[in-house]
Structures are given as C-alpha cells and as structure tokens.
TrEMBL record:
Its EC number is 2.7.7.9. InterPro entries: GalU_uridylyltTrfase_bac/arc, NTP_transferase_dom, Nucleotide-diphossugar_trans. The gene is galU. Residues 12-281 form the Nucleotidyl transferase domain. GO terms for biological process: UDP-alpha-D-glucose metabolic process. GO terms for molecular function: UTP:glucose-1-phosphate uridylyltransferase activity. This is UTP--glucose-1-phosphate uridylyltransferase. It comes from the Bacteria.
Length: 306
C-alpha cells in the first residue's frame, strides 16, 4: 500500500459540549453534565487530558446556554489559588492549576441544537482547513490505552478520516453508529470503512463494530456536512456525512478508516455506567484504592448475605 507523507500534522481538537444532559436530571438542571465529577475531577477534564496527552494543544469546545462553568473550570481561579498559597497547600494548588495548563482552550456556541454533525460544522473556521480530532465527552478512554494517538498515527499514514470502533454485543449495536469494514493491510486493528449506519434497526446492522466517540477528520467533512440533510431524530448526523466520505476518492480527502479499540472505555452518558466508571477509577487510584477496595469487598459481601 502506498502512502503520501508528510501530511499536515493534527494539532487541534473539537469537543462538542452543548447537550442538556437530560438523563441526569435533576443534577444537570443548573450544572452542565460535563462537569459531573468522576471521583474528584469533572468528566470533561479527562477528555481534555486525553487530547493533550495525544499532542493536541489547541482545543475548541462547542458549548451552549448554561455552560459557563466549563469555561470557568479551564480558567485561572486567582482567589482560590491565593487562598491555597496562603495555606501552604501545594498539593491542592497543583490540582487546581492542572486544568489550566493542559491546552489552549477556545469556545464557540452551537446555537440551534441540530445534532452532532451540526456541532462539528460550527468548528470550521477554527479548524482552518487542517485535519482535526473530535472527542465526545460521554466516552472516557483510560489513559493506559492511548486510542487517540493510534488514530492520529493512522490518519497521518493513510490520510482521509478515522473513526474509533469497538466490538459490542449484537443486541446493543442499535445504540450506536455501526460500520461495515474490510481489511486494508495496515494492521490487525485498522480497517477500511465501506459503509456506516446510524443506530441500525435490530437485525439490520452490517457488523458488530460500533463507532465510539473518537474521530480524526479530514476537513473535507465540512463540505459534506453543508450538504447533509437531517437524518435520524431530525438531526444532522456526523455518521451520515462520514458515510458520504466513504464514497469519495482518496486523492480528494475521501476514504474512512477504522481503528479497533480493545481497551478500557467508560461511558459516563448512562447513569449506571457512570457509577461503574467512578467505582473502577476510584478502586485503581493509589491514594484511594486500598481503603476503597476493602470497603467495597465488605459492602458486596454484606449485600450477598442479605
């Protein structure tokens, strides 16, 4: 297989964060769902940390009304920092400053809630014709399983756009975008995507490969999104635009590749999975894990006796 190098490096990420979080009401009535804590950090910080670890230093967050807390979290908190300095609390001071030092943060409002495809489209001016990553805040990827770095590597080698895939039980595939794939000779974890279907009806899915919330996109996607009509749910679906890209020539920025992810992923968009993510991450922490695991064993044991 021939590849064209060097390619324009990927340095920018887009994080859609305009959703209302209705599944977590009433907690999200006045608090953005992205700010719900996962142990002791808001969920959105894990996502920004992932982008930063993959070398993406420029992050655009697509927000909406009542999302000011997101901007405040990634901004300096001078009064709080001064208080911690006076107390000599260097440990907490460092933790407070972590979010500020991750990346150069920018913000734009989506306006009308027209779907993920529309949220991505409002980033066009900021992206400025470069390939870019998209990270959805409901998916937390364990930092020990660097998915995004692998996706960027594939995009730099093959061009086009790259989606993250995870094999799921066929009974669950209707909850996701689904990809039809074929081998492309680039590695056991890399495929060419030949078709995409958003939340297929039971029995109609082309595979058990679900598209999860990580993308590395060619800027050609903006041209396609402008022509993409509302799809499932009356929204402009990113999946529909990517499906169109599978029909474009590679030389024109077309083709879509998939990276199969077999690592640890935490879904914070579902209440039960959100709780499981907190338990798993807390149990693995060096500072919290030993005591928490001991309590958890006792709790589970007592529940089983009951």
């Amino acid at each position: 297989m021939t590849t064209t190098n060097p390619r324009v490096p990927v340095t920018k990420a887009v994080v859609p964060a305009a959703g209302l979080g209705t599944r977590f009401l009433p907690a999200t009535k006045a608090t953005p769902k992205e700010m719900l804590p996962v142990v002791d950090k808001p969920a959105i910080q894990y996502v920004v940390e992932e982008a930063s670890a993959a070398g993406l230093s420029d992050i655009l967050m697509v927000t909406g009304r009542n999302k000011r807390a997101l901007e405040d979290h990634f901004d300096r908190a001078y009064e709080l920092e001064e208080l911690l300095v006076r107390k000599g609390d260097e440990q907490r001071l460092a933790r407070v400053r972590e979010s500020v030092e991750l990346a150069n943060m920018h913000y734009v409002r989506q306006g009308d809630p027209k779907g993920l495809g529309h949220a991505v489209s409002v980033a066009e001016q900021h992206v400025a014709g470069q390939p870019f990553a998209v990270l959805l805040g409901d998916d937390l990827i364990d930092p020990r399983d660097p998915l995004l770095s692998r996706m960027i590597e594939v995009q730099q080698q093959l061009g086009g756009s790259v989606v993250a895939l995870m094999e799921v039980d066929p009974s669950q595939i209707h909850l996701y975008g689904c990809a039809a794939v074929k081998a492309n000779g680039f590695g056991e974890d890399v495929f060419q995507v030949t078709d995409l279907v958003e939340k297929p009806e039971p029995g109609e899915a082309p595979s058990s490969y679900a598209v999860i919330g990580r993308y590395v996109l060619d800027p050609l996607v903006f041209d396609v999104l402008r022509e993409t009509p509302p799809g499932r749910g009356g929204e402009i679906q990113l999946t529909d635009a990517l499906r169109e890209l599978t029909n474009r020539e590679a030389a024109d920025g077309g083709q879509v590749h998939g990276v199969l992810f077999k690592g640890r992923r935490y879904d914070t968009g579902d209440r039960a999975d959100y709780l499981r993510a907190i338990v798993r991450l807390a149990a693995e922490r060096e500072d919290l894990g030993p005591e928490f695991r001991s309590w958890l064993r006792e709790f589970v044991g007592s529940e089983m006796q009951d």
